[in-house]
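User: Study the fold:
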Amino acid sequence: MKHALQEVSNENGNPEISAPAVSLRVHSLRSSLYEELHNRPSPIIDGACQITHFTVMLGDARDEVIEHVKDLCRRYSVPVPNEGSSCLYLDFGGFELRWERHLEFANFTFISKGAAPFSDDALAFIPKDWLAAMPGELVVAVNLEVTQAAPDEADLHRWFEGQRVAGSEVADAKALVWTAFKLHSDGFGRIVVCNRQLNSYQCGRLIQRLCELETYRLMSLLALPVARDMGPELARIEDALATLNQSISDIDADRDERELLQELSQLAAEVERHRSDTNFRFSASVAYHDLVRDRLIQLRESPLDGMQSMQEFLERRLTPGIKTCNSVRDRLEDLSRRIHRTTSLLRTRVDLSIQEQNQHLLSSMNRRSQLQLRLQQTVEGLSVVAIGYYLLALLEIVFAGVREAGFPLNVTLAKGIALPVVLGVVWLGVHSVRTQITKRNRYAAEMRQKPDAER
């Protein structure tokens, strides 16, 4: 007999699974992982409407933005989002707000009905002081008009203020989309959508993809000014590195090697600083561009006669900018590798120079050791003679005393006979002392070379 699993909450508030025969301890993030796939759903769009979409860079305003959303909720007496919320979808009566907080930006999308196309009426219900106090820096501001009837050329010319328009059939020809990818007199971008056969859910997904397309294409281009500013700086570093590489073959003194190593270290520090300052921006640009291409694929465009499609326009205009960013990032990586190779080459030369100096030093020390050995041998010989001389002087006193005591002793003959004996004994004594000292020094050196565990 099968028993249904039930979810109960543990002491931490996390749902646990229990059954008559099964009891499992649930991961603390299980519920949030399930809900993650359902975050940021697409809106439900019924009929004609006006949509205003803002994207603001958060910077240090991540906490301020949610307080700003709570302020709007309090003004309209609607439920405020939780402190850790990253999205909010609420109907405020005259308009619907869709707020989403991402890693480095936040989206504000306002959906209203009944306003004239691209008029100020779309934001009439939103407090002007609240809009003016929106945290962060505005990057995207676009007005999107959803119509049921296809506009004619006069309407498109009036709505887009005579600018060249790109457009296509999307969603398997169930809708039409036009946009100029430019700012208009009100400071907003503009998109027109004609819904032919899309239901409310499909239309909402289309609107969401168009807003994301506008957001991600501009976010991907944030790295382009950085790349342009980096160009002259990278050219200067490349020229400096080429000069240093040429100077390596002209090194004549140790001082030159040290100066080159210092200059290389400075160049390496500059390159690493540029990499750390731009790595996130360039990586984010690639990620955003990938999202742009994904959204274009999801639109399923088919071209309109005499008009450039959105995919064709973005591939022609957006892709070169992204390639410029990638080129600058690749130049930075290549510079880092080249500086590393040059530094390794120069350090090899320095190591060879140090080894040559060490060989000269060892040779000098070897000569000095030989001189010290000869000097030591000379000193030992002189020591034997000196000690023998003093011993013979003492023996002469002894021999003289013996002769005075009445023993017939030739002092001179006795000294001659004692001379080789005294010198031999003294030499043996000095040699024994030197041998003991040498053995002790050798033993101490061997003990220093052994690991601690073998001592």
Summary: DSSP finds nine helices and twelve strands in the chain. Residues 1-9 have pLDDT under 50 and may be disordered.
